[in-house]
Fold this sequence. Notes:
alpha/beta; Aspartate Aminotransferase, domain 2; Aspartate Aminotransferase, domain 1; 2 domains; seven-stranded mixed β-sheet; 12 strands; globular; binds pyridoxal-5'-phosphate
Amino acid sequence: MIDGMDWLEHAAGIVAHDAPNAYAAVVPPIVQTSLFTFESYAEMEAVYRGLKQRPAYSRGLNPTTRIFEEKVAALEGTEDALSFASGMAAISSTVLTFVSPGERILAVRNVYPDAYRLFETFAKRMGIRVDYVDGLDEAAVKAALPGARLFYMESPTSWAMEAHDVGALAALAREAGVMTVIDNSWASPVFQNPIALGVDLVLHSASKYLGGHSDVVAGVVAGPSSLVARIRGETHPYLGGKLSPFEGWLLIRGLRTLPIRMKAHEASALTIAQRLKAHEAVEGVSHPGLANALPLGLRGTSGLFSFVFREGVDVVRFTDALSTFSLGVSWGGHESLVVPGAIVRAQAAQPNSAVAFGIHPRSVRLHIGLEGVDLLWRDLEAAIAAATL
Length: 389
Ligand SMILES: *Cc1c(COP(=O)(O)O)cnc(C)c1O
């Protein structure tokens, strides 16, 4: 179904313009309104009875955020999508739609830390059991699946960057009758389309690559109409974490350059990962693109990876010596960022949780932005020199 970048660029809206807008504008309007009025009793009744689809109140349907949702559904090669105020709102609404007290979630280990905390705090308080499994160990996944309600996937995993064979894991879950959800934020729809690999629902922190400019916090889930309709009907309106029209508009803008940005992140990050791997101060680099081959279904790599310094390198001095890289969480924007693993480990609420995320104490996570790759490398080289004096 997905063959080549032309299709992606079309879906992202670079080639295709949106449906005609007011004043023949090339960019759709921000429909910044809480409510929409009806022409008559009959029309209002038809909408309330579900006989007619049109916006009534922006907690439900809004024309601007709807354009974003339709673009994401097209990019993921699926029927429908639903937007949220954050990636975590998308994750929590999706999980709570399909899992009830007494049921069990199987999650891959080293998932995004706040997804882990959602499982360990809120889900467990609701009487939902959560087990973790190494997604690289397909025999272990097969053994752990029976009886689970939901298999929660993320590939590659946050920080540890374990890249799974998503299609193989989805097939194991299907055989066991277990529903699958995957966090596809790292690859973006440009490099991985999990629905085509057999996953049931795909979600994104749109705060990362979909937005791409570090000016939005948002989330989205995409999949077949029947599943997305359940989230739209059962949790989205009541948990209430909806996307604002202005942020939907920023995301539409972000999607127009998504394929081009991803190719730039990929090229620069691979170059820097290779140079770090060859550097004497570095013990190892976790970047899926450094393996002999990518897992089936992963068509490229993005700008986020981590590496571990050799013993004796002063990570504090390294961090403070950087000038082009900024010190900050999140990723997926135009700018290059660094996060020292020791800080994330220190923040971990539970004694074992940092270990569960696969974060080495001497590790550093980099997001390679859209700056020139040689400028970035000079910054890293100088900071490593300052840290190994
Ligand atoms: C940031 C992130 C999230 C959470 O998204 P928010 O938009 O910050 O709520 C989920 N998954 C991954 C992999 C992330 O990096």
